[in-house]
Amino acid sequence: LAPRALRRVHGRAPAGLEGALYRNGPAKFRRPGRSAAHWFDGDGLVRRFRIADGRAEMAARFVDTPKRRQETRLDAMLMPGFGTVGDPRAEIASPDDANAANTSVLMAGDALWALWEGGSPVAMDPETLETRGMVTLRPDLKAMPFLAHPRREPDGRIWNLGMGGGRAMVWRLSARGELEAATLIDLPRASYVHDFTATARHLVIVLQPWVQARMVMPFADGFDWRPGEGTRVLVIDKDDLTKRREFDLPAFGFFHLGDAWSDGEDIRFDVCAHPDMDFAARGASEVLNGVPLNGEPARLALAHLKADGSAELQRTGQVAEFPRGDPRRAGLARRYTLHTAGEAPDRPFASALGLTDWRTGRTQVFDFGADHVMDEMVFVPRPGGEAENDGWLVGPSINLAARATELHVLDAARIDDGPVVSWRADTAVPVSFHGLWV
């Protein structure tokens, strides 16, 4: 989609809000010769929503991966994936040949990286969205896994993991995306890890009881749900990866964690906890084919890892996914969690936005209504503002009634009031996974 102006349908853009929201998510699932079988296996489409001078525009472009080029040539979805069986015609020499680059984005120097789970970042031009090519952080580490949820410290340094069964690569990069260190560590078990979190001093790896029991494809078929094993949390010192502690929590499934922080020697972090991983194993395939969701949605919880080695999970009961916070406080103590809300078994995904205050226990919610499917939103600090809720929440929805993508801005301190401004595109792009504000 070439850059196109969005039509303002409500309110006015707040003074001081200038920049771009980049988002990534799967957006190509079907071809005449063969289709993808799982929501996580579509081709990545990077979107850019730009706000300047009170106006907004949208542009989007598919990531030009070897996967997409090969499948375009044969007009069939060939590659094995999270829940899609590979086609015998697929030509695969490394994980990057199956790399869908469809989950998130990261700014690294002058490049925008499109991120997957099982292979390299893909560099793109942030202005034209043209693909520059696979990123190799070191020649001997070409095509190594690089998760789609890196953790960025307030000074810009980047930490990430690359998962490989019972082992993980710990990546440490400069603010510009240059490799500083890559260290292989052993894990207590081969759990599915889509996301991890970090404090200022520690990496926090949550090992849920969805455990890799077989090396098979599609990827999800190799995992067993073992609730009797509980959830284990591994805490590693950033300055010395050999220093580690382990904690035990009740069994829960998860995709996403919020930023962790230290409270003395204790550690806290938020998690959107599922009762199991049925959505990954089954639901995300069914919803791709129009089958209504019937599983229990994730609910927000706060994990507390104590200095004495014990741990507890404070469950809120609040329906929530895609937790975000103020990026200036990554790894530092904070009060709020931004998340989607309003998900129910009989409708596709979320319709609402929530902001949970851990100090008061209250969650503010604004529901856009049954005609909207919400994406994750991001927090954008107000220029000169210092308070944790002094800024805006920015993100898109699909307006099902209008059959169009919309972009919304809410005041983080008053989300109950709804959008201060909304724009509408002349087309709709599919719901996406993750993004960032630049």
- What is the makeup of the main sheet? 6 strands, antiparallel
Query: How many β strands by DSSP?
Result: 34
Low-pLDDT windows of residues: none
**How far apart, in Å, are the first and last alpha carbons?**
20 Å
Count, helices: 2
Strand content: 35-45%
Query: What fraction, in percent, of the residue positions are helical?
Result: under 10%
Structural class, judged by helices and strands? mainly beta
User: Which descriptor suits the 3D outline?
Assistant: globular
Mean pLDDT: 96
| Rg over C-alpha atoms, rounded to the nearest angstrom | 20 Å
What does it look like?
The protein is mainly beta. It is 4% helix and 44% strand. It has helices at residues 66-74, 278-286, and strands at 4-5, 7-11, 19-28, 43-52, 55-62, 104-108, 111-115, 122-124, 131-134, 151-152, 158-164, 167-173, 179-186, 197-198, 202-207, 210-212, 223-225, 231-237, 240-249, 253-257, 261-263, 266-274, 299-305, 311-319, 321-324, 336-341, 352-357, 363-367, 372-374, 378-381, 391-399, 404-411, 421-424, 434-437. The strands form 8 sheets. Strands 2, 29, 30, 31, 32 and 33 form a 6-stranded antiparallel sheet that branches. Strands 1-5-4-3-34 form a 5-stranded antiparallel sheet, with no helix packed on it. The longest helix has 9 residues, at 66-74. The model has no long low-confidence stretch (mean pLDDT 96).
